[in-house]
Specification:
415 residues; 16 strands; 14 helices; two-stranded antiparallel sheet; alpha+beta; single chain; 12-stranded mixed sheet
């Protein structure tokens, strides 16, 4: 008996009991759909994080100031300002693996233009190389220079959200805005970045020279900065850049060997790898839980096939009486089990793809401003279909073997 004939017989047998066959494959359908959905959503989250880290900047290294200790109590990171703008300049000049570095000083306040006012999400003082570090372009105008930094010039560069909120149809270049009653001339407009992973608007930002923020907004002459961003020359040189920065700061801050550092160095690549590992573990865990329903579906297939063998005992006896061999009967029932599981796998795969797309759209609606990509894992789909076939073979073998071992005489006498 050839395979095509066996497949035709199996399909006819399954069509006779459509309702029972449908209920039998339900567990497989749910299992495959759940596994496909979990893996796809996990990969979508991983791709979204990758995009967000790329939008933050290429090969970015973040240098935080150290923590302050009072008695036995150690305060949080950044509680002690230990970094200076000179540290950032030294990184760019003396670290061969560092492309650029920029000090950052955060501030707060309202931005006023005419009769309109707005509170930006970020009001920051940065260095001239900040855009190079963040891989951020300018839509209009220019950025401030070393001369602006040295003179603490009252100039600023704004994001697209600030343009929409304050200027609307007016060209902002050359216009004057006020921050804490201090006039600032707009010299540039940033390219649109959109929302970050947390849904925060990255274009709701005003940038000024860090010296301007320190002297004019804070009224301070101290040289400390809140954080430093540096960019490695390539992703392959990230470890070298981190090592060079640490060595440089140990020397500049006169930290003896064996003493704790008064700074902390973190790279976006390190953060992304950590998040990807967490997402990978969570996705694998959820997929494993979802895969348990495949075992339930397999048990259902085995039970129904055993019932089918009992119901068709006389049919098996007749087939053997006219020349069918035991292996033909074995193959017939095994094919039926594989067809059941494969059909369930195909339906589950289609439902999983649809569910992945639907959940992605819901996530985009709930997290306004983010753009979750629809990711269909073809590798996971192929594995799911192979697993579905394996379930049919594994759970269908015992009923098929039992049918093939029936005695023809006893089978013909069965009522």
């Amino acid at each position: 008996m050839n395979l095509l004939l066996t497949l035709g017989i199996a399909l006819r047998a399954l069509r006779k009991n459509k309702m029972r066959s449908s209920l039998t494959v339900l567990g497989v359908v749910i299992g495959i759909a759940a596994v496909t959905t979990m893996v796809s959503i996990g990969q979508s989250a991983s791709n979204l994080m990758q995009h967000e880290f790329e939008s933050f900047g290429t090969n970015v290294i973040v240098i935080f100031p150290g923590s302050h200790r009072r008695g036995a109590v150690r305060h949080g990171r950044g509680s002690k300002l230990t970094l200076t703008a000179a540290d950032a300049e030294a990184m760019a000049e003396k670290c061969p693996s560092v492309l650029a570095a920029s000090p950052i000083i955060g501030a707060g306040g309202q931005v006023i233009y005419g009769n309109s006012n707005w509170s930006p999400k970020e009001l920051v003082g940065v260095g001239p190389d900040y855009l190079a570090v963040r891989n951020w372009g300018l839509r209009h105008g220019g950025f401030f220079t070393e001369r602006d930094v040295n003179s603490a010039a009252k100039v600023c560069v704004i994001g697209r959200t600030i343009v929409a909120r304050l200027f609307q149809t007016t060209n902002p270049l050359g216009e004057t805005i006020r921050i804490k009653n201090i006039p600032f001339r707009v010299i540039g407009v940033l390219e649109e970045k959109g929302a970050n992973l947390m849904g925060e608007d990255q274009d709701n930002i005003v940038m000024m020279p860090y010296t301007t923020v320190r002297k004019r907004l804070y009224g301070s002459n101290f040289s400390n900065v809140h954080v430093i961003l540096a960019s490695a020359r390539s992703i392959d040189r990230m470890p070298d850049a981190e090592h060079e920065i640490r060595q440089l700061l140990f020397e500049r801050h006169n930290i003896p060997p064996g003493e704790p550092a008064d700074f902390e160095v973190k790279s976006t690549t390190e953060m992304l790898n950590m998040l990807n590992k967490i997402m990978g573990v969570m996705t694998a865990l959820l997929a494993s839980i979802a895969a348990l329903s495949l075992l339930v579906g397999g048990v259902g297939i085995m039970n129904i096939m055993l019932v089918s063998v009992t119901e068709r005992t006389r049919e098996i006896g007749i087939r053997m009486a006219v020349g069918a061999r035991g292996r033909d009967i074995l193959r017939q029932f095994l094919v039926e089990a594989v067809v059941l599981s494969s059909v369930g796998g195909a339906v589950g795969l289609a439902l999983g793809v649809a569910a992945s797309a639907g959940i992605t759209q819901v996530l985009n609606l709930l997290t306004s401003g983010t753009n979750w990509p629809v990711v269909i894992s073809f590798k996971a789909a192929a594995i799911a279909m192979l697993f579905a076939g394996a379930v049919g073979v594994f759970f269908g073998f015992y009923p098929a073997r039992r049918a093939s071992k029936l005695d023809p005489i006893d089978a013909l006498r069965y009522e």
